Amino acid sequence: MEWKETWRDEYLKWICGFANAQGGILIIGKDNKGKTVGVQNAEKLLEDLPNKIRSTMGVVADVNLKNENGSDFIEITVPAYPNAISYHGKYYLRSGSTNQELSGYALDSLLLGKYGRTYDSMLFPRIQMSDFWHDAFDIFRKKAVASKRLTTEDVAVTDEELLHSLNLTENDYLLLAAVLVFHQTPQQWRTGAYVKIGYFANDAEILYQDEINGALVGMADKVVETIFTKYFIGRIRYEGLQRIDDYPMPRIALREAVMNALVHRDYSTGSPIQIRVYDNHVTIANDCRLPEGTTLSGLINAHKSVSINPLIASAMFRSGQIEAWGRGIERIVNLCVADNLPEPEFIITPRTFTIYFHTRDNERNETASSTIKNSDIDAIDSKNGGINGGINENKPKNFGVNFGENFGVNFGVNKTQEQIIAFIAENPTIRLQEIADKMNLTKRIIEHNITILKHRGIIDRVGSKKTGQWQINKKDGDE
Question: Which pairs with CB-CB distance under 8 Å and at least 24 residues apart come from 212-215?
């Protein structure tokens, strides 16, 4: 319902927006608080408005004159229309409390929806099977068989036959869902079809970032692995001889949230999913059009699963990566609580959905039992004024490995960073490419983790880029 004090012809745009949405009521003669202020020329408006609405848009609205506390107002009731309605060649859509002019992908989505199609069912005549690599199809086959959603016989078909069995083709054309789920570079065909990750010191300062591209069928695994490898600091502790890695949040909860964003996002907006990682929280934000009347309590509790991308959701279900019972949000909450974390918060707007995870700050493990004593560090340190200064003299076998692992226990670094520290401890002049080769990782991953270690003051580079060396620092307060 919308209130206006006086009539203006520009309000025809609002009527168009109501007709393209779920319908609505426009009241003329009330202020923005709903107080009746009366309307002038009520009888003339009562005669003119139905004709004006019908002639400009073909919409038949119910226009009535009403009275409240002695003051007249006009109530215009607009029904939802099964076909798309335009006003002077432009399309509008009422969303929440705003009226939006549609264009591009958003307009495509409206037109498809009005004719019983979803956005992910859009035909793609410009792409052929020869444009696809086989990798994503192999990932799908392995996941589908492992989850027992499909049998080995079901997937023992060609890639083209597999797409057909998943209803991702129509009249010899591929659908958008096929491109997003299986193409190696879907952002080539649909802008924003990727995930953006950033590590933030605060809202204004980003330290580093990544863009994760590729087929949706393998995207969640890549995103979660990137975050746990490069962005999260694991707290290492021991229970007897058992090594336990405590991360800032449950891996399964993060994966569930990422998959939820991938499946339910609005791909018509052209904006990527954005994941912001901070020391004590993580946010996952994506453009999403929730069903009309959706409430937070309804999402948290078990509810009917409804996706704006049913073809994508079906393919992901067949691959065994999602359920179809509307329990995703409830499961995320339960996983966080079981891991002794506060319940995540959910921020819902008419066009976006954001999950705010509270995470453990593993910047430094204050409680982990130490297996390397400060006196031992001091003994090494005294050789040459720095931890690296004397480690190449009379060092025990596997010193670098032991030092990196023990340093990780004390100072809460992840496994990748722990190994980097071990290599630096073993050879302070080691080059990043050498570390990357030894760990079978890309140089870029090593650079990201080096950035984290330098930002936290754990390591420094001393001297020039060519002839300098790495230095491992003691933490402030170490005696």
Answer: 213/185, 213/186, 213/187, 214/136, 214/184, 214/185, 214/186, 215/135, 215/136, 215/139, 215/180, 215/181, 215/182, 215/183, 215/184, 215/186
Query: DSSP string of 125-142?
Result: TT--GGG--SHHHHHHHH
pLDDT tens across 195-229, in order? 999 999 888 889 999 999 999 999 999 999 999 98
Residue 267: give the domain boundaries.
114-363
| Secondary structure (3-state) at 476 | coil
* C-alpha span between 142 and 146 (Å, rounded): 6
Let me know: does 324 contact 226? Beta carbons within 8 Å.
Answer: no
Amino acid at 308: I
d(CA 100, CA 339): 42
For residue 180, report the phi and psi dihedrals to the nearest 5 degrees.
Answer: -70, -40
Tokens standing for 423? 């290599």
Q: Encode pLDDT of 281-307 as tens digits.
A: 999 999 987 766 666 666 766 656 678
What DSSP element (H or E) covers 18?
Answer: helix 12-20
- 369 part of a folded domain: no
Task: With respect to residue 107, please indicate whether it lies within any of the assigned structural domains.
Answer: no
Residue identified by tokens 């937070």 is: 296
Q: How far apart are CA 472 and CA 355, in angstroms?
A: 37
DSSP E strands, 119-180: 123-124, 169-170, 173-175
Q: What are the φ and ψ backbone dihedral angles of 128, each rounded to 5 degrees?
A: -120, 165
CATH number of the domain that 22 lies in?
3.30.950.30
DSSP label at residue 206 = E
Percentage helix, strand, coil, to 5, in the chain?
Answer: 40, 20, 40
Do 417 and 347 lie in a common domain?
A: no
- 234 contact partners, CB below 8 Å, separation of at least 6: 228, 245, 246, 247, 362, 408, 412, 413, 414, 415
Centroid of chain to Cα 391: 44
Residue with tokens 């495509």: 108
* Phi, psi values for residue 284, rounded to 5°: -125, 115
Residue 478 lies in a domain: no
Phi-psi region for residue 167, left (φ > 0), alpha (ψ -120 to 50) or beta? left
CA 158, chain centre distance (Å): 32
Q: What are phi and psi of 73, to 5 degrees?
A: -150, 160
Is 334 found in the same domain as 233? Answer: yes
Number of structural domains the chain divides into: 3
Contact 380, 391 (CB under 8 A): yes
Q: Map tokens 């848009």 to a residue.
A: 57
Sheet containing 169-170: which strands, arranged edge to edge?
123-124, 173-175, 169-170
pLDDT tens-digit series, residues 40-61: 888 899 999 999 999 999 999 9
Question: pTM of the full predicted structure?
Answer: 0.66
Tokens of 32: 């923005």
